[in-house]
Amino acid sequence: MKTQMKFGLKEKKKIFLVIAAVILMGLSLSFLIRLNFGTDPCSAMNLGISRHLHLTFGTWQVLFNLVLFLAVIKYDPSQIGWGTLANMLLVGYSADFFKWLFDLILPADAFTALGIRIAVLIPSLLLFIVSAAVYMAVELGSAPYDAIVFIIASKLKKVPFRLVRIFWDMTACLIGFLLGSTIGIVTVMMAFLLGPVITAVKERINRFL
């Protein structure tokens, strides 16, 4: 009984960390969208699609992830956990909420000056990376977008996972570009560097946890 109680408390802490991480990812994403240097490839694609469908970013994120979620259930349900659901539901809606909030508080030209944009970009990127690393470190399931990459890589035994990931992200970038999303330096950096950087940060967070 004592072991079960400890396990339950540990799981509750991990769920709390996951929820906090995905909300902070949404917060950082709301800044990245306004700074117009680009976002991560998945968000860039979904921003373009949501505008064309006249849906909020958060609503389209849920619908898009739901389609991928069904595919993950079919091909590798071990990828699914509480973290999967938190990512599906909270990242997009958190980004929508914080964008709405800051539109109320901040003037429309708050991020016009290049110096201010760069100054805000650095902490926004760091927050996104650390939040994503925490999300991965607690190991409560993968985001559907990420889980699909693992599934594809498991089928393509002779292709390195890194190449599969880059191709997946670049495809998302292309779709986003064709639909009018900003594909900037941040998008390119995230497509090629986000995985290794998050892995390095995740290792340090794992030691801390």
From TrEMBL:
Record-annotated membrane-spanning stretches: 15-33, 53-73, 80-102, 114-138, 183-201
UniProt key word NADP: no
Keywords: Membrane, Transmembrane, Transmembrane helix
Pfam families noted in UniProt: DUF6198 (PF19700)
Source organism superkingdom: Bacteria
Record's keyword annotation contains Lyase: no
PANTHER family (UniProt xref): INTEGRAL MEMBRANE PROTEIN, INTEGRAL MEMBRANE PROTEIN-RELATED
Name assigned to this protein: Uncharacterized membrane protein YczE
Organism name: Anaerocolumna jejuensis DSM 15929
